[in-house]
Amino acid sequence: MEWDWEFVWQIMPTMIQGVKITILATILGSALAVVVGLAIALLRRSPSRLVSGTTGLIAEFIRGTPLLVQLYFIFYVLPDIGILLPPLVAGVIGLGLHYGTYTAEVYRAGIDNVPRGQWEAAKACNLSANQTWTRIILPQAIPPMIPALANYFIAMFKETPLLSAITVLELMNQAKSVANTYYRYIEPITLVGAFFLVISLISVIALRWLEHRYGRIER
Amino acid sequence: MTDWSGYLSLILQGAVVTVQLTVMGSILALLMAFIAGLGRIAPFAVLRWLATAYIEFFRGTSIFVQLFFAYFVLPFAGFTLTPLQAGVLALGLNVGAYAAEVVRGAILSVGKEQYEACIALNLSRWQCMRRVILPQALLVMLPTFGNNAIELLKATSVVSLISLADMTFQANIVRSQTGNTLIPFATILALYFFFAMIIAFAMRALERRMARGLDGVRA
Lengths: 219, 219
Prior knowledge:
Number of strands of chain A: 0
Largest sheet of chain B: none
Distance between the termini of chain B: 62 Å
Strand content of chain B: under 5%
Order of helices and strands of chain A: HHHHHHHH
Strand content of chain A: under 5%
Number of helices of chain B: 8
CATH class of chain B: Mainly Alpha
Oligomer: heterodimer
CATH architecture of chain B: Orthogonal Bundle
Number of domains of chain B: 1
Low-confidence stretches of chain B: none
Radius of gyration of chain A: 21 Å
Order of helices and strands of chain B: HHHHHHHH
Number of helices of chain A: 8
Shape of chain A: elongated
Radius of gyration of chain B: 21 Å
């Protein structure tokens, strides 16, 4: 079977549709991961053993199990207890939770990297815990973590094809349906690979720029 | 009331396939990691270029796309692979690309004085690598290799989508036959986590074992 450019152009609009959903899922998933990661990182620092221990265990569990199974869990099990989610929402929640446990580690490293003196200064200035976090610690901790966070978002982008398993019509699913309709696999699957490679390479260049701009964080 | 013992044995059969994939994939990944990792620091530009191309390609495209490519597209090019072969190939090559960067980083992290000592002792390049550099570099690689192995274990769930009867695949069968979603998915989540813990534990034990006798060397 040979490569057919005409077929490529014929299926291109469908593939572009898929790319849009893939990018949308990545952006929403990243936004959720940023929030979830911060929440986990803060809860893990809670003075209560019970809170920090439980959070740690849950995060460890989510990180130790496959995203695909978690997606199935969200998509198939939650409706049994009355939570019916559209596929894309279920997918974004899965991506956000899974990568939230990874970004939590980035936050942890970033927060640990803020020198002790800053905490002491905040205390000496009689700032409340809330003020210390929002005015002193996080503004210093977050910029150096941006490249590391971006790294995980690129990884997340590469895992979005898993959403096809819960019927989200993203790039991979569009390619599969095209392939099944015309029984031609070479062009659709290769195009998916090409799209991923191109977007990943662009993201890597953007990542280099971020590293240059914000510096690298030592982990 | 459903008879769960039959379904449980189905899931355990899947677990065997998951373990097989993880072990064989890890072996291939380890092999590729050393070939490509050493290739990246080889004195010949062609080797460096080839290794870089391999690493960037497999890290840039998603594991999912690579698996589909191996299973659906390669047959058109004349290579027909069984699902298991396609799974091991895609997993091994993908994780190998990530681990190659670990190998390169660990070897470069060994101090310059160690190389100078090799020259002073008139060791050949091979002897220097085998006797001096690698024993120290391996210890640096091990924790990250452990993480990579867990990533590989998690990635094996993806092979269920090319109809290989691994744990995730079997859980889906149980779901469609019993209509129960919680029990199959909760069971395999627990099993995946259990396997991940075993890998983490084994890696820590191995690290302690290999650190023996290197106390004076490590900073």
